[in-house]
């Protein structure tokens, strides 16, 4: 195929709806890849080029080129507050409609809990790449969608700092058959009452297990103490607590901090 023929094949042709259609066999493959990328991006508040490269097994340069094209077609938005930070990438309303998702009412605030959100996305990518057949990794947005569709309970009821009841979705849920394991990445310090409510709700849930990944030995120790207290309180109220709860270091914690977290978490159980 000559270069001018390839260019003609790759040129997007927009038909009815929001999806750019590419003609030719290569165009069909590229359209399918674009759809997979958009579907994955849409499962999170935002992602980055590096994380897309990780998830789809391509170079950062290849990921950047695809994102640039998707942005040019109006399917994604890529923004950053500072030149030094990677762009936050999320679906535009057009991109959401193109894959059958309801567009967001507001654009995500990429500066809010940025470190936490990207940690969740990185962990999800790693879990999906390592998953055996039959294992499914659900993001918070996946859980919200399934619960809204009546496919089961994917959240817990907790009390906020003002004593108001609200619903909380885990950062991730790993499913294999009927077994569900919730994963919470905890970087920020929470009020003791808030943390106790979260732990107690998880212990009384129908989940098989909940795993807390933390970046601080102090938080690991707090979680260990609170878990022991809340499990005792639930037992006194004759509420079954068959949920396994584990506390582990976040994978990128420095070696010395990692070891300290393991020691602190070891105080539990």
TrEMBL record:
SUPFAM superfamilies referenced in this protein's UniProt entry, alphabetically: Winged helix' DNA-binding domain
Highest taxon, organism lineage: Bacteria
One Pfam family in the UniProt entry: Replic_Relax
Record's protein name: Uncharacterized protein
Source species of the chain: Baekduia soli
Lineage, opening ranks: Bacteria, Bacillati, Actinomycetota, Thermoleophilia, Solirubrobacterales
């Amino acid at each position: 195929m000559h270069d001018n023929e390839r260019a003609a094949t790759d040129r997007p042709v927009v038909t009815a709806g929001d999806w750019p259609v590419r003609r030719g066999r290569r165009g069909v493959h590229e359209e399918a890849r674009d759809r997979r990328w958009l579907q994955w991006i849409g499962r999170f508040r935002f992602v980055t080029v590096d994380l897309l490269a990780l998830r789809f097994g391509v170079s950062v340069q290849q990921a950047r080129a695809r994102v640039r094209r998707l942005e040019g077609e109006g399917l994604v938005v890529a923004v950053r507050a500072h030149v030094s930070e990677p762009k936050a990438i999320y679906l535009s309303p057009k991109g959401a409609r193109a894959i059958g998702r309801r567009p967001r009412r507001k654009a995500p605030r990429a500066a809010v809990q940025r470190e936490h959100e990207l940690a969740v996305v990185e962990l999800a990518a790693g879990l999906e790449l390592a998953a055996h057949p039959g294992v499914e990794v659900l993001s918070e947005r996946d859980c919200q969608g399934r619960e809204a569709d009546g496919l089961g309970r994917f959240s817990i009821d907790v009390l906020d700092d003002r004593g108001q009841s609200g619903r909380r979705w885990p950062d991730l849920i790993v499913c294999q058959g009927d077994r569900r394991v919730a994963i919470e990445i905890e970087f920020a310090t929470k009020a003791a009452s808030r943390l106790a409510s979260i732990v107690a709700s998880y212990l009384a849930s129908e989940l098989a297990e909940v795993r807390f990944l933390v970046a601080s030995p102090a938080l690991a120790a707090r979680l260990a103490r609170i878990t022991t207290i809340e499990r005792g309180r639930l037992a006194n109220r004759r509420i079954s607590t068959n949920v396994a709860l584990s506390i582990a270091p976040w994978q990128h914690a420095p070696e010395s901090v990692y070891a300290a977290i393991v020691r602190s978490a070891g105080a539990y159980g």
